[in-house]
Here is the input.
Amino acid sequence: MRKWLPLVAICLGAFILLVDVTIVNVALPRMADDLDASFSSLQWVVDIYALALAALLMVAGSLADLFGHRRLYVAGLTVFALASLACALSPNAAVLISARAVQGVGAAAMFATSAALVTATYQGRDRGVAFGVWGAVNGAAAAAGPVMGGLLTQGFGWQAIFLVNLPIALAAVLLSLKALPAATQRKAGVRLDLPGAATFTLAAASLTYALIRGGDHGWTGALTLAAFAVSALSVVGFVVAELRAPVPMLDLSLLRRASFAGLLAGALIYQVAAFSGLIFVSLWLQNVLGLSPVRGGLALMPMAGTAFVAAAVAGRHMHKFAPRVPIGGGLLLIGAGSAMLWATVHAGSGQSSLFAGLSVIGVGVGLATPVLVSAAVDSVPPDRAGTAGGAVNTFRQLGMTLGIALFGAIFTARVRAVTTAGGTPHTAYASAIDRISLYAAAAALAGALLVLTVVRTPKPQPHPTGPPAVKATESPEVRKAPAAQARS
Here is the structure.
């Protein structure tokens, strides 16, 4: 049993990292009441975590290559735990948002190193078992988040959703120091692309700010327009930085490969359509329908449950199909589920109106998620596998960040319009959920068509010197890809 202690340490970190993405949604109404937080502040509580994760993921991978995977993983756990304590003790929304940003920094270090640590620790059959358990824990974290958030918030207050991280992080740190390999092979010539990371972060943050502020204060305000301008200039700066960097954070030449570019766009759209609207559904369930945090969390379970089951069942057969089939098919199902929400949610609806739509969305998530990274990795040369895996994960988190900001603007505008016209809160919130669901359905359909059209099955490319080393930003699908190609 001692050989599985490293896996326990890695899985504990993965669990708290991923559960904190969904556990917060159910607690937002209580946070708003206790901290007297505005609607835009609530968006930032969720958004800033995903933004930090997206901005720093590939940089954290380079840091792991420089200083060692275990060292960065333990550092990430420590930062995550201290930031969680700061979140729980926050006296106002500004402090909470700042602490969530630091929490995202720790999460990036953990996420960037966990798969590489599994690879460095286990070999042969044990490695396959370890990645299977690690993947199941990832799915369980997403499924458990809403229910855990509801139970902790209702029983102990919203602060408990952050305090619960502390004993788990402490156990993970102690196990990591005891059981994980002290060092992994460091790569020569690794450099940090600080200009690329800075311009990418500024572009994403300013665009997110512009979308949130535009929804609250109008799209022609000076600050809104200035934020859009800063974002555009930062994108230009990012392109220039990557073209000039000796070791770029993102090799822009890979974007000339239609399959890889299509998968990045598909990953971003997938996250927008499937997950970005859940925060507003949670607000509707508790603020309008009057559900308790526990019941509000349970109302979101159909999506997480079907995603977990679909991924487990379909995972055995994915190697029989070209990657565009499960990804494109998953996006089609996400679009269909969103369209069902658009058709079933109205002013007189209850929580049962969500069940069918969320269940279908969950099946789509379960089909698309397991192959997103491996499809991107297979679409580039073997020596760019780590970059491809990191880029997909980065674009997924970027999609979450921008999706919440964009849907927040749509939600605010719709609620304001219906309320101004004399509608009740029930009518206004239901109409806003409908509008978000409609746009999510359209985005998912467009993403599905894009993936099905431009993504092609890659030709197997033999590695020149044996199996490639797993970079810090790779997911377990990277290791499964060669086996899947061999079976097909």
